Amino acid sequence: MSTHSDRTTRYADRLWEAVLRRAQHTAAEVVADALRDGLDAESVLLEVIGAVQARVGREWAANRLSVAQEHAATAINDRVIGIVAPTGAAPVEGGGPGRVTVACVDGEWHAFPARLLAEVLRLRGFDVDYLGAQVPSPHLITHLHRTGPDAVALSSSLAVRLPTAHATISACQAAGVPVIVGGAAFGADGRYARLLGADAWAPDARSAADTLASGLPTPEHPNSQPLDDLPHLADQEFTLVSRKAPALAASVVHRLAERLPEVGDYDDAQRERTAEDVRHIVDFLGVALYTGDPGIFTDFLDWTASILAARSVPARVLAPALDLLGEQLRDFPRAAALVRSASAGRSTPGPSAAGDPPSPAADPPRDRTGEPA
Amino acid sequence: MSVVRASASEPTPTTDTPRDAGGAAALTVSPSGLVLEARQSAAALLPQLRAGEPLAQVVPWLAPAHDAACGRAEAPGPVCDVVDGRAVDARPVRHGDGSITWWLIDVTVVRSLRDELRLEQARASFLAEASAALLGSLNVLRCIEISADLAASRLADAALVIAPETRGRCQVASAVTGTRTARTVLRRIDTEQLPGLAEALQGFPPVPSRWIDPALAPAWLAPDGFGEIGSVVVTPLPGHGVPAGALVLLRRAGSGPFSEGEETTAREFATRAGLAMSAARMFADQASITDTLMRELLPPTLQHLHGVEFAGGYRPSQDHERVGGDFYDVHPAVEGSGGTLAVLGDVCGKGLEAAVFTGKIRSALQALLPLAEDHPRLLRLLNDALITDAHARFVTMVLASVTRRGADIRLRLTCAGHPPPLIIRADGRVEEAATHGTLIGALPSIESTTFTTALAPGETCLLYTDGITEAQGGPLGRDMFGEDRLRRVAAECAGMPAEAVVERVQMVAAQWAGRNSHDDMAVMAVTAPHTHHLAAVDGRGPGRFTA
């Protein structure tokens, strides 16, 4: 007799084969079979479809999937959710566990985890408004005023969205609605959720649904300002560095070409990718300044090095780029110190050569634009 | 020093300066409890006081403190008591012979001022907290619940907020002090049962808050398990033009009635709650009007149709808007339409006004659908209609007539002043559709050429507006996205499902623009499905904005 996890793994393997071949019909059959086989809908959502999506991310990070394969797989996976989703089961008027708005932070395109949560909540009888990817704050807040949900579930996968997430959390709380956050952006232990004053954090869809079912109290500090949570913002380094980000990146790229002859010989596409990498470094530096946590910056550098290594791109520009960036930041003591210490940690060949890539489970894959797959 | 004696039978004078002005009084007491010496002013404060009498007889309230002080080695501490309605502070000083001099200070006025200050501070902080909580929400139900919670937290043992009737029912939120958050229920209530309620709910005529005989209170008023009601007060919530409802405060039997100060606080709270609720109601009305008017202007959710994948994505130039000058539609085939007609276009201008104009164009195209077989003719008819309309704006668009031929899709494309669509071949080649034409609504006569092609399974025709290609930004913040970059992105999309192509293009362009201002951006993909069409599930794209 096979255990529950044997069965979910078996269906996840079959679904993986199907999405890889872009066989939508087969993918739909696998999910329908799993349900007929008696697997509960929540397990099919999370341990079959969700597991396959996580695998898509891991395979992309390891460069075993192309962008097109990864998008096709995600699209098919997204479609088969519709088979599991409850149909026509109207939420109980007044008697249900409550109304929840599920949305991704503005700029966050990685909607899959949020969609899974929305479906899990629907299965558990919640009245769910799923707003999807990259919801601009004004829409979200208007929606809250219009519908008055019991809670907002906010998803973000990439730490670079934390400042935006913070503004969104505060705006929801000011509207009197408590916020539960989830996604890799908030840290594997939810540390940034606490830092940014979220009312709750959940590591996965199931515990998010449990927390929401027990009810969130109305926000304790409905009118907090960013400085209340993060007093170090008073030095304005985040504000100035993020405003100057394009100019900082441009200057680093320009001087990289002077310093490394091979960069001077890059073609347009290579130059653009280098510019993107440098810009991401500056953006993540900004988030480290915002949160006051240098780990965000060094984690990003480690991750970049591992992604470049998986694609056989030498990570040689990272160290000189950090040096050049440090030179630009003389007027910003906190930023300069961050760059100095990060740079000191990788003066010898980076983690790309040393091996030890970050654990794939903890790090959602992102494509070259810095987006999660 | 004059003597004004206050006793329990007489009302305590609130402004009684003489004895305070006299400052401190004093009496010296031996260790055995005999009064050795009393200063005259002490006699005024304590009229029974005589030197030589036992303290326990003349100042009984002080005796225990004195005995305790004499029994201990350490310095004795001060004692407070209320004597004949006056608050008295007694501060001891021990002498070398073991006797103690008690300095008596009348602190009645100081105390009452301090109490008043504390009350006033509490009141101000409550009202400030209430304002902040109420200002935050524009949701009517939430305002009702917040009001009930706040009132129950400070003003009474339980509070009900009753909103004006709609269709014979009232929203009622009731909160009991110390319990969980109030929840609103919709109930049918007879407003006449509770005196003052009908007027308060109508918002007219103005009525003061009033006391109700608890015996008259209808049964539904008391929350479950509340117990016997001791006092009830009904306060109208002023709505400034719109009725906002009523606040009902309840106290349990035995917990005393509302004081004048508490009633004032309740009234001031009611003013704030009423304002917040009427603002929320006006917002809800306006938002519902906007929604109704906007419904026709929002880009449609595209479905798979007759074995062809259609997907569309839209991002208005302004984050706070949901519509703009770009539009797309997919019209299922009708007699004479020459297949499914997909349209994507761009009206000159942005924002709501441009959106209203896209509505006109979309209706006109819908009406012209039976003539869609002949693209140039359809465009000419549209041009004629716009040229005679004084309020019309220019519009550019692409028409795509789509028919299924086995596994392939036949495509006829005609541009009118619009960037030509890109054809993404299965092998990653990207071709530009060779069609061009005059924009619509500017010139009396127009020309256009139609391009015909076929899509094999996995191939996509990508229609887009110039908001994509003209996006300014990039990693260094100053480059245009441009057509070459779009073609490179399109090439990566070879073999993807339609919604994935749309999402990919939208994502890359949005990230390119970053925080820079940008024009409306619209994208539509028409894709020949790979093999099987997934009929069992709906074909909505992943994570598109649907609010």
TrEMBL record, chain A:
GO molecular function terms attached to this record: cobalamin binding; metal ion binding; methionine synthase activity
Annotated B12-binding domain residues: 97-223
Domain of life: Bacteria
GO CC annotation: cytosol
GO annotation, biological process: homocysteine metabolic process; tetrahydrofolate metabolic process
UniProt-annotated stretches for the region Disordered: 211-230, 340-373
InterPro entries: Cbl-bd_cap, Cobalamin-bd, Cobalamin-bd_sf, Met_Synthase/Corrinoid, Meth_synthase_dom
Keyword Metal-binding: yes
PANTHER family, sorted: METHIONINE SYNTHASE
Annotated keywords: Cobalt, Metal-binding
Name the UniProt record assigns to this protein: Methanogenic corrinoid protein MtbC1
Biased composition (Basic and acidic residues): 364-373
From TrEMBL, chain B:
MF (Gene Ontology): phosphatase activity
Domain of life: Bacteria
Keywords: Hydrolase
Keyword Aminoacyl-tRNA synthetase: no
InterPro entries: Bact_Sigma-Reg, GAF-like_dom_sf, PPM-type-like_dom_sf, PPM-type_phosphatase-like_dom
Domain PPM-type phosphatase: start-end pairs: 305-528
Pfam families listed in its UniProt record: SpoIIE (PF07228)
UniProt region (Disordered), positions on chain: 1-23
PANTHER family: STAGE II SPORULATION PROTEIN E, STAGE II SPORULATION PROTEIN E-RELATED
Stated name of the protein: Stage II sporulation protein E (SpoIIE)
Source organism (scientific name): Pseudonocardia ammonioxydans
Top-level taxonomy: Bacteria, Bacillati, Actinomycetota, Actinomycetes, Pseudonocardiales
